[in-house]
Write a structure and sequence with these properties.
The chain is of the alpha+beta class. It is 27% helix and 27% strand. Helix 1 packs parallel to helix 3, helix 1 runs parallel beside helix 6 and helix 6 runs antiparallel to helix 7. The structure holds flavin-adenine dinucleotide.
Length: 509
């Protein structure tokens, strides 16, 4: 039997991101996936600024080409790719498909899942991860001090056991782990099945120069959805769970292209369109992450994989601190408290938008829409690891409106430190960081083992965005940012017993 602090089951986008973040935090773990590598039919290709911020923190963003600033996914309704382009649909009605570039040091990436996964895997392994492919979880049982997993090497056929203190189920929407635990899911549920055909067609790439990447094809008696992985691979999505012959697929592709372009079919796929969020993200030592926790259809907000990668970012530092004895085990409860509402927020926002509203059915009550920037940079988390994020606050708001509110992402701004330009986000990642202009607070940070950052002297904020205005903290106050870049606490005044006590409670020591 082998032992590991953490067993990650599932080595796709979320499992590999978890592995990368854990290795970056120096946490030993094993990640297993039953497949030998990435699926030949990629799914995701749109990765948001937040995801790239996490990859930037762990040092791999330079391996992932990012889109030019301001670029967002654009969808148009067309007769065919080469035919009439009729109208463009905004993801959020009334919002232009551009994002102000000052909100993040990253712009997001358009990279196919099967190109990104090898980058994640290699980076995780380089940082010490034990990544095992063709290795399947057969069964598991809860033990007093963790989980005992039975796994099988699918190449040699050898079966063995792995004992783990914690298990992360990143085993996808069908999650055998979640199913065995009997964790129910809620949401709009099953909405249909789509069939896809992936094909290689360099001749179609020229149409991308017109600025759109997603195409709703509408012809008499024919409706489909066409998009590209940006590397001459295109995918055509067809409604309905029908087996189609090679000739039928070729004809469907020709109709969608609307021009005599040479193409070659690579493979086909079958996808369930559904909206489901697990009723809990934690069962004892087991955590659900990614599609195992929330199954959401592909959106232009990138709510599928990106939400799962953000789950991993939230969980990795908490596991690290608890395993290292730096925080009480209760810190791990804040994973469900913080991430499940985000899963719900994204479920509700997905089905309240025109892309999916008609599919959600009459029983679904749409929520008021939040803007694109609010959903990407202005979500609020509430838990015992955040002080002062009450139920009166909205689930999200435009990032500029939060002004340092605990529970929100610390804002990005370009700073100067010792003559070097850096993003404020570069200050965060591994430790709790206390930022203040007050010497007294900086001394308290030292006593509590927090990383002190002297606003105005140690780091220089731009004159138009001074620390106090950006974080909502007066010169005698302080703010504390958690390792995941979320503001955890702030004080408007000089240190006293009450504010220090609240800070210590938030650190969950
Ligand atoms: C057509 C399409 C396009 C999409 N586009 C986007 C996009 O642009 N952006 C975005 O953010 N999201 C997108 N998504 C959603 C995205 O693909 C998923 O959210 C994402 O892949 C989920 O990742 P995951 O790691 O949680 O699960 P999965 O990718 O489903 O991976 C689960 C892994 O677990 C492994 N596994 C399962 N059981 C076992 C076991 N017993 N033992 C060992 N291994 C096991 C599987 O082999 C698999 O590798 C898209 C989805 C579709 C269908």
């Amino acid at each position: 039997m082998q032992h590991t602090p953490i067993l990650v089951v599932g080595g796709s986008l979320v499992g590999l991101s978890t592995s990368l973040f854990l290795s970056w935090h120096g946490v030993a773990h094993i990640v297993i996936d039953k497949h030998p590598g990435s699926s030949p039919h990629p799914r995701a290709m749109g990765f948001t600024e937040t995801t790239l911020e996490h990859y930037r923190a762990v040092g791999i963003a330079d391996q992932i080409p990012q889109v030019p600033a301001g670029t967002r996914l654009r969808r148009v309704t067309v007769d065919s790719l080469a035919g009439d382009w009729k109208s463009e649909q905004a993801w959020t009605p009334g919002e232009a498909p551009v994002r102000p570039s000052e909100l993040s040091p990253c712009t997001g990436a358009a990279i196919a899942q099967d190109r990104l996964e090898p980058i994640l895997r290699a980076a995780a392994i380089k940082r010490g991860a034990d990544c095992r492919t063709s290795t399947e979880l057969i069964d598991f049982r809860l033990e007093q001090d963790g989980v005992l997993a039975q796994v099988r090497d699918r190449i040699s056929g050898q079966q063995y056991e792995i004992g783990a203190r914690y298990l992360i189920a990143a085993d996808g929407a069908a999650s055998p782990i979640r199913e065995k635990l009997g964790i129910p899911r809620s949401g709009v549920g099953h909405l249909g099945v789509l069939r896809s055909v992936l094909f290689y067609c360099p001749g179609a790439d020229a149409f991308l120069q017109r600025g759109a990447q997603q195409f709703t094809i509408e012809q008499q008696g024919y409706r489909a959805f066409l998009t590209t992985y940006g590397d001459s691979r295109w995918v055509l999505m067809l409604d309905g769970d029908e087996d189609r012959t090679g000739a039928e697929l070729q004809s469907a592709i020709r109709r969608a292209l609307g021009a005599d372009l040479a193409f070659e079919i690579i493979t086909t796929g079958r996808w369930e369109l559904a909206g489901r969020v697990a009723d809990t993200y934690r069962h004892g030592p087991i955590f659900l992450a990614g599609d195992a926790a929330h199954q959401l259809p592909p959106t232009r907000g990138g709510f599928g994989a990106n939400t799962g990668i953000d789950d991993a970012w939230n969980l990795a530092w908490k596991l690290k601190r608890v395993l290292a004895g730096e925080a009480a085990p209760g810190l791990l409860d804040t994973y469900d408290a913080e991430r499940r509402p985000i899963g719900w927020l994204r479920h509700q926002q997905t089905f309240s938008r025109p892309d999916y509203a008609t599919r959600a059915g009459a029983a679904f009550t749409p929520d008021p829409l939040f803007g694109n920037d609010a959903l990407e940079f202005g979500q609020l988390v509430r838990s015992a690891a955040v002080a002062g994020a009450g139920p009166d606050l909205p689930a999200a708001a435009a990032p500029g409106q939060w002004i340092g509110q605990p529970g929100t992402r610390a804002p990005h701004v370009w700073l100067e430190r010792a003559g070097r330009r850096m993003s404020s986000l570069d200050l965060f990642g591994k430790d709790y960081v206390l930022i203040s202009a007050s010497e007294t607070w900086l001394a308290v940070a030292g006593e509590l083992g927090l990383q002190p950052v002297a606003a105005g002297t140690g780091i220089v904020f731009p004159p138009a965005q001074p620390f106090g205005a950006l974080f909502g903290v007066p010169p005698e106050g302080a703010t504390v940012v958690r390792p995941d870049g979320v503001i955890g606490w702030r004080s408007q005044g000089a240190p006293d017993g009450g504010s220090i006590g609240e800070l210590v409670a938030t650190l969950m020591r």
